[in-house]
Structures are given as structure tokens and as C-alpha cells.
Specification:
The chain has about 110 residues and is an alpha+beta fold. The chain is elongated. The chain has helices at about 15-25, 85-90, 95-110, and strands at about 30, 35, 45, 55-60, 60-70, 75-80.
């Protein structure tokens, strides 16, 4: 079995020194070829146990979590996240189609 390799930083299951230097913590896999230290602006959407949507993504140069403001129909920044948060939240990731629906509503609210 081949080791996973991050498409952005090149870290593997057995070597993520650069991720630790970048974030202060070891990374984890959020896609088969993307580590949590290299989460991008697209990020991922997840639903918590109370059925509330959140968006974990890079904002500026740091990973943030945003919550869905139901009345404004838009994403609002909540707080910065750690690598451990990203790993935990990614387990609740929704399908891209569901995330795209929320992103479309957000774009319409910004017009």
C-alpha cells in the first residue's frame, strides 16, 4: 500500500515536519491527497449534532470556522481553528452538492 502524499506540501503519513512547523501540530488527512495544514479557501462544510451548518476554510492565511447565519443567509466568521478541530469537523463533512447550495445562497445575499 502506498503512503498518502499531500498534493500541496508533499507531507506523508510518516513525515509532516513542515506541517508541524507551519501550524504547531501534526496534520491529518481531509482528502486522500490533501492534509489539514493545506486546507484551502474552498475548505469544507459540515453539520453539527444540532443540524447547524459550518464552513471550515482558509480565511486570510489562517484556518477559520464560519457559521451559517440563518436570517442573513450568509457565512459569518466564528473563530480560528486548530488542526485537531479540522480533523474532528471533517468527520461531519457534507456532500459537495449540499455545500454548494449554501455557498450559492451566500453569494446571492452579498449582491
Amino acid at each position: 500500500m502506498d503512503d498518502q502524499t499531500c498534493r500541496i506540501c508533499g507531507c506523508t503519513d510518516y513525515g509532516c515536519r513542515q506541517c508541524i512547523e507551519k501550524t504547531g501540530e501534526p496534520c491529518c488527512w481531509i482528502e486522500s491527497d490533501l492534509c489539514s495544514a493545506c486546507i484551502d479557501e474552498k475548505g469544507f462544510v459540515f453539520i453539527d449534532s444540532a443540524d447547524r451548518p459550518y464552513w471550515c476554510r482558509m480565511y486570510g492565511n489562517e484556518p477559520w470556522i464560519m457559521y451559517w447565519h440563518i436570517h442573513q443567509k450568509s457565512w459569518v466568521t466564528l473563530r480560528k481553528v486548530t488542526q485537531t478541530d479540522i480533523w474532528k469537523f471533517h468527520e461531519m463533512k457534507v456532500p459537495d452538492e449540499q455545500a454548494d447550495f449554501l455557498h450559492t445562497l451566500h453569494e446571492k445575499s452579498q449582491r
